[in-house]
Amino acid sequence: xxxxxxxxxxxxxxxxLLATRMRTEDMLPIAPVMDEIGYWSVEMWGGATFDSCLxxxxxxxxxxxxxxxxxxxxxxxQMLLRGQNIVGYRHYSDDIVExxxxxxxDRGIDVFRIFDALNDVRNMQSAMRAAKRSxxxxxxxxxxxxSPVHNIETFVQMAxxxxxxxxxxxxxxxxxxxxxxxxxxxxxxxLREETALPVHMHCHATSGMSESSYxxxxxxxxxxIDTAISSMSQGTAQPPTESMVAMLxxxxxxxxLDLKKLQExxxxxxxxxxxxxxxxxxxxxxxxxxxxxxxxxxxISNLAAQLKEAKQENKIQEIYEEVPRVRAxxxxxxxxxxxxxxxxxxxxxxxxxxxxYKMVTNETKNLVRGLYGKTPAEIPPEIRKKIIGDEKPIxxxxxxxxxxxxxxxxxxxxxxxxxxxxxxxYALFPREAMEFFKDREMNEKGVNLKDIAxxxxxxxxxxxxxxxxxxxxxxxDQWKNVARREQMRQGGWLx
Length: 495
Hints:
The chain is an alpha/beta fold. About 50% of the residues lie in helices and about 10% in strands. Strand 5, helix 7 and strand 6 (about 170-175) form a beta-alpha-beta unit.
């Protein structure tokens, strides 16, 4: 059986290694070469890319699909969709989910990989049905994790429900690199026997087990694997594309991909990666903390940044140990966006405050309230009481409590939204979208925001504070505004 490859270099690889900062302009030159490879798909959208485009890069995320599709007409485009969270951090109403999926498909998304952070299938159903109606490939994902309540049987039961909802393929989403090779074999084998659906494996290289897990999964019947071109692989990203292609060459699983063409792509991204050195993750090697504490690499880097800002770097080991305790308290959620941020932030507060749950985030409260869905295990009553008092958690699908939002938001954003995609951007990230729309208008009036940001950045870092009017060449108001944003972003703009 020929193994198919999904390359993640245009999404998860740079999200994992370069804080999702890669610009579309650095993807387009190599896109025609990638189109010749014969990938099963290229993952190039979703996850944090939407947020990052608006927040940091000042790009329209919708236009990224359109521009890349012109250069890659023969390749399936794949996105990562967080179920009812779409690409955001809360649940959105069904009408927003449905319109988002349809518009993404219209732009060029062919495969929707849909998951829920709690593995609550109820939170996946609207997106799966919308993708099915659009004619796209529905890839339903199981967020793989380990705990006293997670095992192969529970994952297979979940897969049965996903098949009933119309899944075309199943994905094992191993976001922390926890999937061990022999477990991978048994899990893939049982998923194939139970559902007969193609199995797509997505493993991060964090713990050093990913290639071995892929090989055992392939032997058990997995048909598709996620890899990243070698110059953008390993660490908290995926295993190298070329290595997997070479390992399978000459076997019954031969991918048929051309290593010389792949090398051309790798050489290109090796140079591109240098441009983003300031955003380089410090976790580019094997990190066995994932095996001990189940902390994904991206979560580790976020924790480190938070502690540095709070001048509490010496607390990192205590937080590593607190994360699994908080996870157990909160019903053993898989640690993936947004639950990884919720658990990590709460663990940090517990350690820094010196008392567990003395300070509780709104997100932690909402998780305990059931507003993210049903947790894999019941939350202990004493923990629930400590966090939300005598309040009763909800038991319905969280989105059932949400009124339709699209029409109201379209009126709210008004003429600044030029199309339905703009309304959806506003629905997901109101503040960032409004800022982007206003900046777009300034650009069209001939105000070069990147130049302004560059000078503003220099001004903010300057020790010799000249009068702003002198620095800004008479555009004081515009430049002050961007300088303030530059300071708020803390260097988020890539100049």
